[in-house]
Write a structure and sequence with these properties.
The protein is mainly α. It has a domain of 61 residues.
């Protein structure tokens, strides 16, 4: 099943890349009319959403976290540092009270 999911994921990535290339090529310069109708542009958006949703489902089924989510500089870090005090050589009771 993993092989089938990997193949489907590769197909979806290729579809997304080709669709993005087509969109870039047909996007006119600013101020020029768009060659695609509003309905076609909405259909393209829906295709991108469907592809992204399925890619996410496949990644979750395969146990791989998504690498496509943007990370911002001011975003809190997910990693938490936990300081462990008292790890090391055995201390006597008098040493603990001195700290």
């Amino acid at each position: 099943m993993n092989t089938e999911l990997n193949n489907e994921h590769r197909i979806l990535v290729t579809l997304r890349q080709v669709l993005a290339s087509v969109v870039r090529e047909v996007t006119p310069e600013p101020g020029l009319p768009h060659p695609l109708s509003q309905k076609t542009m909405e259909d393209v958006r829906q295709c991108f959403l469907l592809i992204a949703a399925r890619e996410k489902e496949i990644s979750e089924l395969l146990g791989k976290p998504s690498q496509h989510r943007p990370h911002y500089v001011d975003e809190p870090k997910q990693d938490k540092v936990v300081k462990l005090h008292g790890i090391g050589p055995n201390k006597t009771r008098s040493d603990d009270n001195a700290i």
